[in-house]
Amino acid sequence: MSARLLNGREVSRVMREKLGTQAQQYSRDFGRRPVLATVLVGDDPASHTYVRMKAAACTEVGIESRRVHLDAGLSTNAVCAEVRALSEDPNVDGILLQHPVPPGVDERAAFDAIDPAKDVDGVTRDSFAAMALGTAGFESATPGGIMRLLDSYAIALSGRHAVVIGRSPILGRPMGMLLLARDATVTYCHSRTADLSSHVESADLVVAAVGSPGLVRGEWIKPGAVVIDAGYADDKGDVDFDSASRKASYITPVPGGVGPMTITTLLEQTVRAARERSMS
Length: 280
What we know:
Layout: E1 4-5, H1 8-30, E2 35-41, H2 45-61, E3 64-70, H3 76-88, E4 94-97, H4 107-111, H5 125-133, H6 141-152, E5 161-165, H7 172-181, E6 185-189, H8 196-201, E7 205-208, E8 226-229, H9 241-244, E9 250-251, H10 258-279
Parallel strand pairs: 1-9, 2-3, 2-4, 5-6, 5-7, 7-8, 8-9
């Protein structure tokens, strides 16, 4: 068996064409472009790269990107104040606080300073509750992007056994909630899980999201399983791609799988937030 690639770049391209049309329509209807504010605290090189990528993607679809760069030495209260100011700004539709923040800043407090109506990255407590309870709200961008990628290939989830490796509050945990809402049976695995391989071997769908290169080995993969590699460290994914692709039915490449979908979901939710706010 040779796995079919889940091509996030191609799916994102199609989605962005549609988003461009929606953003243009919004501009005609309301006299301005949707606005995404990106908040970067400190000078982490990787974070700067991610923010530039998101700004370029905004330009591509007709969203205005407003960059806010804060000093790494700011206190939690100061960062939260900046985020609250954006939350109160009527000309800002979505807010992205780039993760991670410096060690001296309480990231959870900073996330929760975002107005839930502008939480287009799906990182607040309110957004997590909405995902868990199945109510209206914004999805965490990476899990939401994964769901859109699975849907684009018509991959059935109901009744399937999904193993999520990772339990971060912005990736692993919300990923499991979104899969559960689609009637998958979800097992969470993490750094304290005993005999990880046995859990993976039983999975119809594996989502690896820990940032540990090569953690998931091909011999663990159940024949015909779907494999989503959401990990990224040292330019590599969490899954040994070569061996896993010989057993899986579908698999994401790294790069080119989950990453483009994360950014496109962020853009999609920004356009949605702009229209919902303008019509409320």
